[in-house]
Amino acid sequence: MPVTRSTWADMDRESMTRSLPPYRHRLGTTPHPRTHPEGHSYGQPEPDSPPLSGANWQRHTAFLRGVHLFNHGYWWEAHEQWEAAWRRDPDPVVRSFLQGLIQSAAALLKREAGSDRGCRALWERGAMNLGQAAARFPICAGVDIAVFTQQMAHTLAEPIPGTGGGAHETGRGPRLDLVPDPTQRQ
Questions:
Q1: With contact defined as beta carbons under 8 Å apart, do 132 and 99 qualify?
Q2: Is there a domain that residue 145 lies in?
Q3: Domain that holds residue 67
Q4: Which of 35, 82, 100, 149 has the fewest CB atoms nearer than 10 Å to its CB?
Q5: What is the CATH number of the domain that holds 17?
Q6: What burial class does residue 177 get, using C-beta atoms within 10 Å of its C-beta: 0-12 exposed, 13-18 middle, 19+ buried?
Q7: How is residue 52 annotated by DSSP?
Q8: What is the DSSP code string of 121-175?
Q9: How many domains does the chain have?
Q10: How many CB atoms lie within 10 A of CB 52?
Q11: What is the model's pLDDT at position 181?
Q12: Which residues of 104-129 are buried (b: 16+ CB within 10 A; e: fewer)?
């Protein structure tokens, strides 16, 4: 079945019905989700995932859940979902793509925590990994990599609202708006 924007709208509505964790993990502010007894994922198994591919990304639970979490500002939680696929993926291009998304989420966490240096370092590596993936697949797993990297760069260039540039609980960042890939090859 070809993917259309209306299909994504339906999938987004479906994913919206899934519950979000009770809080967004913020570095140094909230209980660590996995290691702290009050963490929202404490005692739960780590996410598991099959490799991500052009044939399965439209139904890939961990990838789509990560997109949903990312778009709601749950950057640590999104990275956990994508890391599950990244650990198992044998394709170096898909691994670069996933690692770039993971590093983008981590950069936003560092930015929110007020670590400009950590944010910049993570974003430089994330942009490099996304660029490597885009050289082969400009649209990978529904993500237009050029659009996303422009949104990330714009977000990271702006001061955090209401702070004069310091840390602040915003949860605002770029969105991953999935689009159909006309080649359907990645």
A1: no
A2: yes
A3: 5-157
A4: 35
A5: 1.10.3450.10
A6: middle
A7: P
A8: HHHHHHHHHHHHHHHH-SEETTEEHHHHHHHHHHHHHSPPTTTTTS---------
A9: 1
A10: 25
A11: 59
A12: bbbbbbbbbbbbeebbeebbebbbeb
